[in-house]
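Regression test case RT-17, inverse folding.

Input:
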């Protein structure tokens, strides 16, 4: 993840340069007053604060973070935080249970969402507030977006053929995507044979092998954070911890439990303050 840097309490995060566009005549005020969120701490849930509209100021144990439209702030469990929401602003919170969430995001982190990524956040909010549900695991999609924006990509060889490259990008984005090869071929308007041949020619791996590498790389990173085997298996697309354990042992030559014992970081008390905040540039 690279070296971390300490920031004075009032210094803005590097890499985020907000430019606030002028409002159009049709962008009317919403009549929403300013609001203050008193200091709080969630010991059993991680939180994401998505600035849908306007601006907010977050205070993470003395670190002042300015949020502009489409900024998303990852707040790990155990971190005391408060907020000042500006007038005519909209901010949505999302909560992820610690015991059920496997993620490599261990520090408070700031990301700026692309416009086409915000639909996943809106859809997840709809799922949690209405009876309308998606067949896709939207919480997993949202976590993948944040990890991609904050931490970047991987080292697997990428296919060059457009259809295969689109599949690879989607699998890197969400290693747990369980669509079959035939379904992927239909998504990118290619035949199964041409898709498989493109992966093998461009990467030296079949599509099945390439997806397995993606899942195992993601699982290894998640296990190293101390996440439970059950949550990791779910995150990377396995229907049961047992099937995940078999695949992991075949791939790495060690069970997830053995790997985690060798690579888990030292435990820290609840409320431990992260060393620094990361920002997506």
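Golden output:
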């Amino acid at each position: 993840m690279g070296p971390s840097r300490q920031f004075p309490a009032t210094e803005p995060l590097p890499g985020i340069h907000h430019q606030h566009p002028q409002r159009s005549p049709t962008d009317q005020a919403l009549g929403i007053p300013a609001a203050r969120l008193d200091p709080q701490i969630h010991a059993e849930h991680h939180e994401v604060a998505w600035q849908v509209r306007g601006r907010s100021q977050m205070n993470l144990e003395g670190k002042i973070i300015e949020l502009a439209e489409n900024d998303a702030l990852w707040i790990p469990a155990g971190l005391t935080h408060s907020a000042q929401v500006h007038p005519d602003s909209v901010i949505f919170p999302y909560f992820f249970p610690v015991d059920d969430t496997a993620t490599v995001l261990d520090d408070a982190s700031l990301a700026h969402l692309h416009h086409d990524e915000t639909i996943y956040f809106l859809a997840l909010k709809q799922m949690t507030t209405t009876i309308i549900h998606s067949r896709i695991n939207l919480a997993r999609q949202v976590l993948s977006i944040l990890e991609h924006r904050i931490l970047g990509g991987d080292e697997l060889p990428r296919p060059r053929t457009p259809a295969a490259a689109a599949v690879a990008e989607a699998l890197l984005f969400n290693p747990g995507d369980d669509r079959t090869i035939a379904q992927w071929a239909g998504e990118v308007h290619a035949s199964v044979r041409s898709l498989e041949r493109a992966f093998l020619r461009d990467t030296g791996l079949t599509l099945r092998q390439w997806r397995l590498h993606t899942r195992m790389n993601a699982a290894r990173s998640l296990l190293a954070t101390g996440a439970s085997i059950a949550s990791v298996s779910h995150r990377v697309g396995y229907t049961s911890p047992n099937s995940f354990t078999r695949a992991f042992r075949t791939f790495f030559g060690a069970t997830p439990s053995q790997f985690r014992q060798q690579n888990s970081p030292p435990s820290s008390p609840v409320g431990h303050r992260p060393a620094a905040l990361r920002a997506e540039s």
